[in-house]
Amino acid sequence: MLHAQKIKTSVGFEYFSRKIGWDVTHSSNLKSLFFTFNLEIEFPKELSSNTIFGYSFSNYKDLTFRGLPFSLKIGEETGTVGGFIIGEEIRKGLIASEKLKIDGLGQILGFLGLKKEWKIQDLAVPGTAEGKAYWWRVSLGPVFTYRGSTKFFPYLYLNLNTLWGTFKMQEAVGELQATEKQKMYSKSFFCIAAGFNYELTPAFILKGEVSLLPYNGGSDLGLMIKAMYSF
User: Fold this and answer.
1) Which of 50, 96, 197, 200 yields a CA-CA distance of 20 to 30 A from 157?
2) Which residues fall within 8 angstroms of residue 221, CB to CB, at 6 or more apart?
3) 97-115 pLDDT, tens digit each
4) Which pLDDT band holds residue 142 (cuts at 50, 70, 90)?
5) Are 137 and 163 in contact (CB under 8 A)?
6) Does residue 34 register a pLDDT over 80?
7) Residue 82: is it exposed, middle or buried by C-beta count within 10 angstroms (0-12/13-18/19+)?
8) In angstroms, how far is CA 55 from the centroid of its own chain?
9) β-strands 127-146, 152-173: how paired?
10) What is the spatial distance between Cα 43 and Cα 92, in angstroms, rounded to a whole number?
11) Is the pLDDT of residue 165 over 70?
12) 124 pLDDT exceeds 80?
């Protein structure tokens, strides 16, 4: 049975812009900003488990629903859709030398959206729409960390990275009611992330990361900042 050697807690925020496909031939941008609390437990043999909780604000601008009585397109005026973040991350040390360490890292992250209601304008009768989204993001790959410094540790994370989910929209206009679901999937599947860990003290670490996810015709972007404390 494995026993914990060290426990780390951290708070941070992450932003990403992701090109998503929907309705077979159409695509738009999913932009999400979320704040997280992490509880990481280190075990023997270079193994750690990190549980992630948080809250996110996501924007689905230009996502369109044409199967409703009155077509709807999510625009700037509809604002963001809030929801909870939950996830798990597993890290395992693979190879280590004096100046280089290679880990295997896998993460699954889920967005469980809350319902949001909008009023439909410019209709002869009152109309409302209610939307709710959920998505999952999975990444898996090696992390290369340079350990030649005593406090600053830059790293490169090369990973397979995909996202998929569903946005459900319900519309009610007078006596007309209908529901339509749009299945979403990411256009990018590979991620190059560069970051660093900086030890302010042996127990307090700052982490920053920038990620790039190329796809045919463009690239997605991600940013992350964390403050970690271990005891």
Assistant:
1) 200
2) 16, 17, 210, 211, 212, 213
3) 999 999 999 999 999 999 9
4) very high
5) yes
6) yes
7) middle
8) 11
9) antiparallel
10) 10
11) yes
12) no
